[in-house]
Design a protein that fits this description.
heterotrimer, A mainly alpha, B mainly alpha, C alpha/beta, A: mainly alpha, B: MetI-like fold, 2 domains, 10 helices, 82% helix, elongated
């Protein structure tokens, strides 16, 4: 029923347009406070102005870079540590309670100690991101490596595959779906921590942008910044999903 | 016997770390203004407990966390139930919601600050936004999974849609919604604490950042450990509640 | 052979001649799988000794390949069919091009060349099991151990694969130890059939199968010697098997 699918798509588009239109109408009629709820058109104008002025790309790039470094470090470490704990019964026994205590701790709780150690610097932001984003990957990696089918271990033993090739060729691909699940959550956390740590440390970036906009009551720029952050969140998630689809393409092909 | 052995082994590492930490502090090896000694942390924590600041901070944080959770749950269920019942509505409204969802909840901090200024209300606003999504998603999928027959019963009895939603739809979906609320509760605490660390001058998060910035590392670490304990306790409570909830509402064929 | 307090195999003396096809039958839980895993070197005997070609079995070896019943769990789902087969070549340090070539050659001899680039998850159960057999053969083993390999397949596929494995085993002169609980399958395939009882697993009888090769599904199964062996095996094992139903 392709006609139906198109009809719903158009319906969805009309709905979104209607919402924006309603907002615009209410703003124009002064029923919504222009300070707290600037109209979509003003937000759009502010966004364009920021892009043209160059106020957008620099901070966006800075935020992205920090987010990427922190997240990459967290992912790498998370996979390695998670795998090590999964493979070593001793590590599990000794580290389990510590990990259970650290897990419910909010990632942002790392910010005050980080400020003590590193001050209000760029390095602090990246460190915060890394420490905060490591947990989902660590847990995902741990779970993935623990759930490698023992049958595959037997197959590897019979083929006389040594420990290192086994980890790389059998254990890691087997754990990859769980690792990816953790990595995706980790990316979301990285974005949040990037914003938050930037605000805290007054480091140039999208987080600081919206904070400054709030302080000077420039709400169209504030909303524009929020939109940009939403887009950033969307793009990064989609890129990761695409990578996952490619690397795990064998999953989609099952009969 | 076995669990006692592994429990004591598990406690070994933290105890060892703390002991090394204390020794390092005494020997002057570790920097005093960032890593104060465990003994000092303990006394700072005891002091904060005694003068009530720890308890007060905890209450403030949980106030906003639970408040935002409650409102977020209400909105999530109120939006999710009709969307789950009507695939057409979901197809039309869904994409707009999908466009808003990627916005990180923390990006709303300055907006909440703009509207409400410092205080409890701005924090509740941010927590609400963050909590709405998991509840919404779970409600939609839970409602969608309700046995068609139950809904047909409602229609056969000619129940008005609102009544049928309360009497039939929601109770049937309650088990899964409960799980979603539990996830949201965890998020609520994290978002509340984060808001306090970054901006809002109330609650445990604020206590921590103030301690850090006024060069009182012992108090900061004490607050951190307290936060960890509180978070752990909260997590355990949530799991216990979830189990009780599920045993009540998930009984019988789903 | 004991697992904890349970005596799984008791007083089992078995010898398998090189190049022969030995079938082991018995009811569920009689220790057939344990026996095979002992042969493979995956587990060690708690008492007694195991030898393969005059050398004691101390662990897994490429000389002894095993084909499991659960093909879904034994193949690497993220690798294509040819890459699964080529797994056996990777420990030999072969270049990728050569590995691929040899894998495809092997697949071609088994009639699987067209699915070489597919993922195991895209294939039917019968084909997946054939891929597992191909991987086992890629090891170039002296002994092929098969643990109820056709148990999870439908009857028609089972018959096709029975003929295929009989052909492969005789072509390559591979010693095969084949475990099944299907009595007729055991007689159809084997040169010798060992009947095991359960609780604890012990050898009731070793039967020689005097049927001409090559065998076929229709003719051989109706031949008088086949029916005689079948009768004998049923007498030996059916009471035990019925106990386990």
């Amino acid at each position: 029923m392709r006609a139906r699918r198109w009809a719903t798509r158009i319906g969805a588009l009309l709905f979104a347009v209607a919402v924006l239109g309603l907002w615009q109408g209410l703003a124009d009629a002064r029923l919504l406070s222009p300070v707290f709820f600037p109209s979509p058109l003003r937000t759009w104008a502010a966004l364009r102005a920021m892009a043209i002025r160059g106020d957008l790309w620099g901070p966006a790039g800075a935020t992205c870079l920090r987010m990427f470094y922190g997240w990459a470090a967290a992912s790498l470490l998370g996979v390695l540590v998670g795998a090590s704990i999964a493979r070593s019964a001793a590590a599990r026994i000794y580290l389990q309670p510590l990990l259970e205590f650290l897990r419910p701790l909010p990632a942002s709780a790392i910010i005050p100690p980080a400020i003590l150690f590193l001050g209000l610097t760029n390095r602090m932001v990246v460190t915060v991101i890394a420490f905060g984003a490591i947990w989902p990957v660590l847990l995902g990696s741990y779970h993935g490596f623990r759930s490698v089918d023992p049958r595959l271990g037997e197959v590897a033993a019979l083929l006389r595959i040594k420990a290192a090739p086994y980890l790389w060729k059998v254990a890691l691909p087997s754990a990859l779906p769980d690792i990816f699940a953790g990595v995706r959550v980790s990316l979301a956390i990285a974005l949040i921590l990037a914003i938050v740590a930037e605000m805290q440390a007054a480091q140039s970036g999208l987080g600081l942008n919206i904070l400054m906009a709030q302080r000077s009551f420039r709400s169209p720029e504030l909303y524009a910044g929020i939109v940009v952050l939403g887009i950033l969140g969307l793009i990064t998630n989609q890129v990761l999903l695409a990578a996952e689809c490619y690397l795990l393409r064998w999953r989609t092909l099952i009969r | 016997m076995n669990s006692a052995i592994s429990a004591s082994r598990g406690a070994l590492v933290p105890i060892l770390l703390v002991a090394l930490w204390e020794l390092g502090e005494r020997a002057g090896v570790l920097p005093p203004d960032t890593l104060s000694s465990p003994a000092a942390i303990l006394s700072a924590g005891a002091e904060a407990l005694r003068d009530g600041s720890l308890l007060w901070g905890t209450i403030e944080t949980f106030e906003t966390a639970l408040g935002g959770l409650a409102i977020g749950t209400l909105i999530g269920v109120a939006l999710g139930a009709p969307l789950g019942l009507s695939p057409v509505m979901e197809a039309i409204v869904g994409p707009t919601l999908d466009a808003i969802r990627p916005v990180p909840s923390m990006a709303l901090l300055p907006l909440a600050l703009l509207i409400y200024g410092f205080g409890a209300r701005m924090e509740i606003m941010v927590v609400t936004f963050a909590c709405t999504w998991p509840v919404l998603i779970v409600t939609v999928s839970a409602v969608r999974a309700i046995d068609r027959r139950l809904l047909e019963v409602a229609r056969a009895l000619e129940m008005p849609p609102l009544l049928s939603m309360f009497r039939i739809t929601l109770p049937a979906a309650l088990a899964r919604i409960g799980v979603g609320v539990r996830v949201a509760a965890g998020i609520a605490l994290v978002v509340a604490v984060t808001t306090e660390i970054v901006l809002n001058p109330r609650g445990l998060g604020y206590d921590m950042i103030v301690a850090a910035q006024s060069m009182r590392p012992d108090l900061m670490w004490a607050d951190l450990v307290w936060l960890g304990l509180v978070g752990l306790l909260f997590d355990l409570c949530l799991r216990w509640i979830e189990r009780a909830w599920l045993s009540r509402y998930a009984a019988g064929p789903a | 052979m004991r697992f904890g307090n349970r005596l799984v195999l008791d007083n089992v003396h078995l010898s398998v001649r090189m190049g022969e096809f030995l079938c082991v039958v018995g009811p569920s839980g009689c220790g057939k799988t344990t026996l095979l895993r002992l042969f493979a070197g995956l587990i060690s005997a708690t008492s007694g000794e195991l030898f393969a070609m005059d050398r004691p079995i101390v662990g897994p070896s490429r000389e002894r390949a095993i084909v499991f019943q659960d093909y879904g769990r034994s193949l690497l789902p993220w690798r294509s069919v040819w890459a699964n087969v080529a797994l056996a070549y990777e420990t030999l340090g072969m270049a990728r091009a050569e590995r691929r070539e040899r894998a495809f050659a092997l697949l071609a001899r088994m009639g699987l060349a067209e699915v070489g680039e597919y993922y195991p998850g895209q294939l039917s159960g019968g084909m997946q099991q054939r891929v597992q057999i191909a991987r086992a053969l890629a090891q170039e083993p002296r002994v092929l151990l098969m643990d109820e390999p056709f148990g999870a397949l439908d009857a028609m596929t089972r018959q096709t694969l029975q003929d295929e494995i009989a052909r492969l085993a005789s072509e390559r002169q591979i010693t095969t130890v084949f475990i099944t609980h299907d009595l007729e399958e055991a007689i159809y395939l084997g040169d010798h059939v060992v009947a095991l009882a359960s609780n604890p697993g012990r050898v009731i009888e070793t039967m020689e199968v005097d049927l001409a090769r090559p065998r076929d599904q229709l003719g051989t199964r109706e031949a008088p010697p086949f029916l005689k062996h079948r009768h004998r095996l049923f007498q030996l094992l059916l009471p035990g098997m019925q106990q386990h139903e």
